[in-house]
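I'd like us to work through together how a protein chain folds, taking it slowly. To get us started, please write out a protein record for me. Go ahead whenever you are ready, and we will take it from there:
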Amino acid sequence: MTRSPSETRPVPAALIATVVLLTAIAPLATDMYVPAFPDVARDLDTSATAVQLTLTTFFTGMAVGQLVGGPVSDQRGRRGPLLVAVVVVLLASVACALAPTITVMAVTRFVQGLAGGWAMVIGRAVVVDLATGHQLVRSLNLVQGVGGVAPILAPLLGGVVLQLSTWRAPFWVIAVITAVTLVVVWFVVPESLPVADRHPGGLGAFVRAAREVLGNREYVGYLVVCSAAVVALFAYVATSAFVLRSMNGMSPIAYSVSFAANAVGMTVASLVSARLAGRVATRSVILTGQVLALAAGVGMLVGAFWLGTPLPLALGCFFALMVAIGLVLGNAGALANAAVPDHPGTGSAVLGMLQWGTAGVAAPLAGLGGEDSSVPVALLMTVGALVSLAALVSVTGTRRRAGTPVGRFPGDGGGGARL
């Protein structure tokens, strides 16, 4: 399904806000819970690594949910599958709040991630259905930027809740927010995929669509750009509580404030990216973020190996990383989707699956140092930034060798938006 830029209408603000709620499920389910990691380990009598593995099961569920949800929505439409996913998130959140052991927590977190990923990929596909060109870049950056309110508020709310109650309370809060989201989705989200534009279902159809998507070298390049950046991001998410609380003695509230400040940086960067869409080459914005992420990783390496990871250095590097993520993810995701306009659901599914799959790998790897080492997170931040940068260079080189103008969207006319 392709449309010329002239056929594209601005995505309604109410719909953008609803997609923000859908994409907020993952940061809410993660960031409200992260400040409580040391408390969960004590209460359930388990190790830091076991607690971090609940992040892995959640991220694995997110990956599987997006991989399945995208193709199903390409076949069945967006609205029905989306409503089912939000209901399951609600039920899984309640189950997480009641989990008696770390094993039960890991399983319920998987289900929560599965349904959350399903909802997230469909929400993103609705935007891709309705926007193209720089309007797509602007819309997805707005989703990421405004959605940055969730990771800003979540750790602060989580820190306050932890002062007043146990680590289980954040999951009850998530359940309430999910219930509100269900009502909003019912009234706001339309069916954005006409029956005539749906693809036939079945495993064979999905495999064919996935093969076509993965056969697009430009799409794959941006897939790697995003996934490598996510490795750095979730290495930070999985270990920052231990680096800042266990190694540097920060309180839950102080940690939550620092986490929120980093999310502010990411949000501002995403909103700036949205403003720059169509004015500044999108690849230049991505490159700026990648260089900043690399600097943050190298700074953490220096601190980890030679300085004992002092608090000011850790705070500065984490903040720089989050600003960089705000410049990279929304833009690279938009360019990936623009490269495969005929399969928006499958393209979004593969993108989401790889992102959350790599997040699931990054979380336990970053935790290999336990509560007293920042070496793993520093290495993952640096390697993630380097691989992301190499992928961007590769995509640019591929387009130039193919004779495709580097500064235009696929399908745009002579005055296409700069990338």
In short: The mean pLDDT is 78. The CA atoms of residues 38 and 386 lie 31 Å apart. The chain has one domain: 12-189+212-402.
